[in-house]
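Long-time lurker. I teach an intro course on protein structure, and each term I like to show students one example going from raw sequence to a predicted 3D structure in token notation. This year I'd like something fresh instead of my usual example. Would anyone be willing to generate the tokens for the chain below so I can use it in lecture? Attribution to the forum is fine with me.
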Amino acid sequence: MSEATDLAVIDIKPDQAPALYKSGGLDDFLEQIRQAVNEAPDLTTKKGRDRIASLAASVSRSKTAIEKPGREYLKRLKEAVRPAEAEIKRFVDACDALRDETRRPLTEWEVEQDRIKAEEAMNAMHEEALEMNVKFDQALTQKFEADHEMALLMNDAFDREAKAKSEEAERRRIAHDEELKRQAAEQAKREADEKAAAEIAAAQKREADAIAAKAQAELLAKQAQERAEQEAKDAAARAEREKQEAIAAEQRKAQEAADKVRREAEAKEAARLAEEKRIADEAAKREADVKHRKVIGTEIVSSLLGHTSLTREQAIEVLTALKDGLVPHTKINY
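-- Reply from a regular --
Happy to contribute to a lecture. Here you go:
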């Protein structure tokens, strides 16, 4: 391929965009570009290297010439669906706020009920622990009194043993109190953890609902965009079809008018030529008749001169009389 086959300048009009910027719509341009650069210049020469650079630059120019109007067309499509996206988001946000505001009294009531239940459980555990402490103290007191009475009867060694048992009992009581407190704290912690977990689960559910609503909104927006794109494509195709039909109709009318003018011109020319031919034929016929009559007249005059004693002027007078029908029973046959 020589330099004379360089790529032609590509100019895409806005009304061509819907038919071109679709699946496979640019294949013809791509094949045209491929064919235009389908050559192998000689790399060993400067001319060949310059040719390769020129071919690559022409591909870039063609790419820009096709990409730029395509980006503009895509921008117009996005702008067409932007109001729908904004309206859907405004509606979803308003519904979310209305839902949260509507449920807020119930949510606050549920939180308060959870707090009351936890408080009641804590109070019940505390009362149970107090009752157990009282019973334990009573038991210890009874045992201590019994031990004290016995200690009065025992020796000092037995007193020391009783004191040790009393101290052990006190340690057990304290340990029991601590265990009750620990259990109560663990119970309160479990309930608090359960409440927190429930609140987290509720928050996660609300978040999941919000994500699902957002996904639904995005799906609706995407469907709206696809419908808008399809409608735009259909409208553009319909407009292009109607334009081509109108152009074809106008071309047919123009061709019919041109054919009519041509036929009328041809008829006029044929009539003119026929008239000219008729006039020419009649003139030729008259001229031939005049010549023929002259020949006949000349022969008659010559015959009269040869066979009579008439002069030329007299012979011509006789010819004129014969021609004008002045001599009865005579007629010149031309």
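Some talking points for your students: The chain has one domain: 14-265. The first helix runs from residue 17 to 20.
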